[in-house]
Here is the input.
Amino acid sequence: MPIGFDPPHPIQNRAARRNCLHIGLINNMPTPALEATERQFYTLLDSASEEMVVRVSLYALPEVSRTPEGIARVANCYSSIASLLNTRLDGLIVTGTEPLAPALWDEPYWGSLTAVLEWAEHNTSSTIWSCLAAQAAVLKLDGIPRRRMDAKLCGVFECAKRSDTSLTLMMTNGYPDRLQMPHSRWHDIPADSLKACGYRFLTQSEDAGIDSFVKPLKSLFVFFQGHPEYEAESLLLEYRRDIRRFLKRERESYPAMPRGCFDEDDAGRLTALRERVLCDRREELLADFPFARLVANARNTWQQAAVSVYRNWLRYLCARKTTHRIRPVGRLRQEHSPFEGRRAVCQ
Here is the structure.
C-alpha cells in the first residue's frame, strides 16, 4: 500500500493496526540535497511497503548548517527534535551529512545526535543509521572510531551477503548472493572492531569494506555505510559538485571519478575534461561537463536490492508490533508528504 494512502475509514481491527507504521526521518543533508533526500526515502519506502501503510514524519537536527532556503524548508515542513524526544515511533531513519570536523564528537550536532541515539534505543522497534550517522552511532555506543581513507570512496561496489544468524538471515531475505550498492564517504569502520563489539554483518564488499551490519539492543539498530536510497544520478551530482569545488579552489585535489558508473566513452570524456581543468583551472570549464549525456546513460543497478533491504525492515517493524504492545501516541496527524491531500490514519 503506498505511503500516504488514506483508507476510507479509520483502521479499527488489530491486524490492520499492526500494518500501519509510523516512521521518522531525520534528514541531516545540506540544503542542495534536502528535498532530493526526502524524495529518495519516500520513493524507496513506497516501493517496499507492500500491504503496509507507512507514515513518515520529518525531523532535522537544529545544529546542521543550512542556507536561508534550507532553514525555511525545515521550519515549514519539519518537526523539532524536542518533539521527537517526547513521542514514540515504530521506526526511525537517520541520515548522514558532510563532515566538518576531524573528530565526530567535535561536530556541532554531536550532542543532539547522541540524544537521539539514546532515545531511539528505548522508543523505536528499530532504527536505521546511514553513512556518517552510522559511524557516529558506533562511536557513541562502543567507542569505535572511524578511520580516514587515503581517498574518497565513491562509486557502485559489488557486495556479498554475509548472514549467519536467524536475525541476519531475516534481514537479508530476498537478497541475491551478490548485489550492487553505492558508496560515497571519506571514512571507514574497521570490520574487526565491529565484530569484537558484537555487531553482525549483513553485506560486505572487497573494495568498500562492510556495507551493512546490525546490532540488537532494546531496539534493533541497522547500519548502512552505503546508500541504498540513492537514485541513478546521485553519485553523478556529487561528482559534479566536487569538480565545482575544485574549480572554485574550495578543495585542492581533483575528485576521483566514481567507480562503476560510466561506460568507456563517458569515462573518456570525463578524463579529457579532467586533463583540461588541470591545465587551465577556471570555473567556466564546468560548462563542458557532459551532464545531460551522463544522466541519460545513468542506471540504477541497486534498486531491487534496496527495495529488499527496506521491505525486510518494514516487515520486521510489523512483526514487532505483533509480539510487543507499543504504547499508542494517539491519532496520527497529517505530516508533510509528497502525496499531497492524502494521509494514513491509525487509531
